[in-house]
Amino acid sequence: MSVSRRGVMKGGAVGALSIALAGSLDSIFQTSAGADVGEAYGYGPLVPDPKGVLDLPKGFSYTAFSAQGDTIESGGLVPGKHDGTATFKGPRPGVTRLVRNHEQTDSGVKPTAPARLVYDPAAYGGTTTLDVDRNGRLISQYVSLAGTATNCAGGRTPWGTWLTCEETEGFGGQTKSHGWVFEVDPSGRLTRPEPIKGMGRFAHEAVAIDPRTHVAYLTEDAANPFGLFYRFTPRVHRGGYGSYMAGGRLEAMYVPGLPDLSVVQEPGAVFRVKWLKVPDPSAAATSTRKQFDKITRSQKLEGAWWGHGKAYFVASYSRTGDGAAADHAGQVWTYDPHRQTIELELVFKPGGRFDGPDNITVSPYGGGVILAEDGDGEQYLVGTTRKGRPFAFARNAFNGSEMTGVTFSPDGRTLFANRQDPGVTFAITGPWHRLRA
């Protein structure tokens, strides 16, 4: 099995997800490749979509909207490479507001936005903000941040904003440095195209924030050498838009005697960690991950999420052929800030029907999770029942592009997800209560 990018959770129900990650997702990844899973439980077999776009179980339906290249009423076109997404309460009852990333670097449909929202005119990434009614119909959309690059994942803050992360350290033609985190205000009133420099310049993936202390934990997807797991302790702890701009302390996780997380293959293994200050978070001369003689690394550090008093972070895969110390098809770790320890919760093994889990969210129905695949072959949204049984909830019937941005509306009625290329967003509704364990 090949597990790949960006398993980002955005949303609540923290207790349910922590239980699922700690014990039930292993069944997804250890099912034999030929096993007939997802038919007798979950929501039943997938029904082929007559339009050839998205297969869903009986009783479920989708609305597709905000496709790459669609006209935006305020001017310009919808950018492509739809990726990490978060939901917020809309301006009135029955309306959900989405903030959505676009993982474009220096090509594609260039976002059009007022100059006050543009960071680097040479970059093609950014975010769009959308309002959708309870029937999945698009009400409005606009580019809410432009001039950033490779906006992959990020994280929702405890104060109700979106941190969008650049998964790059720069590209040809740039007019400003890249590899930063930017904050987007869903209301549109406060957003400024200013990097949060205290959170470092590197190939960011995701952010998980402790709601009590506002300490942020960040993942890095990089190679030559592999990336690090970081901790950002803000100087100002009050929260609110722009509070991280006051700076803070950026550190990298170090587990003495464990230079590569991939060698740990036994769930339940616990290690005490140290945090080493990053000498130059701006990476003016040397990448942050190269500023250490001794440090703990991992290939494909991706998703991060806070729950059950811990920061969850994902290593999507590890391959000795790429220079890793050991092979695995995915790890889920937790960091306990009280004990200052990390624990391996799961090791994903090859051979399952599903592969490449990417974004992740909690289902409010039955205590399971929904994962968006970015793997080989067909691309699914994969769910789990309360007993941890995996099932295919949706299939990209259009092409082999990854599914991204999976997240429920605040009221739990609608599941939103994206197809990355060509980009489009889906609002999925149906008889969620019908889940069979």
Automatic annotation (TrEMBL):
Superkingdom field: Bacteria
Pfam families the UniProt entry points to: PhoX
Source species: Actinomadura rubrobrunea
Protein name: DUF839 domain-containing protein
InterPro entries attached to this UniProt entry: PhoX, TAT_signal
PANTHER family noted in UniProt: MEMBRANE PROTEIN, SLR8030 PROTEIN
Range of residues in the leader sequence: none
